Amino acid sequence: MQPCGFCTVRASLPTICIFGGLLVLAGCAGTGAPGPSLLDNLLGNSTSVAAPAPEPDKGCGTPAECRSALKTMIDDPKRGWVGQPQPPETYANGMRLFAYRALRKRLNCSELSLAVDEMRAASKALSGPVAGMSPDQISRTRALNSQVESELVKERTRRCRA
User: Fold this and answer.
1) Alpha-carbon torsion (28, 30, 32, 38), positive or negative
2) What is the pTM assigned to this prediction?
3) In this predicted structure, what is the pLDDT of residue 109?
4) Residues of the chain with pLDDT under 70
5) Which of 20, 21, 46, 89 is exposed most, by the fewest CB atoms within 10 A?
6) Three-state secondary structure call for residue 134
């Protein structure tokens, strides 16, 4: 008996989610410059060599730099970046948001509270115009910020006392 198409898609759901997240990250990091698109770079359709990781929160210009910086944030055992509010444009590339999403089950209660507070501050900072960000970019960043904040609040509620 052949598996149905739904079963095949369901079995690969984690892969789809990871790929989708990387596409969003690539889209958020777009510069609009001519040349190969960030999606081409992400999918390996470019001959560029991976650049060294930038410092967390210093931004990234290519998908390879963003992935490397995101990995650095996630792998940082001290997580000193957690709960450190940033200028609104810093959230546009999605690195902090994806790092919180990846770490939410590993953050302790104090870190979860700091992260929720940071997400709330970011939401306020993104509530109006932001220099260097288009209205569409602000809207996408606010939507992702809202999703991550909700996930962090649920995780904190599930594991931590108020």
Assistant:
1) negative
2) 0.65
3) 96
4) 1-59, 162
5) 20
6) coil
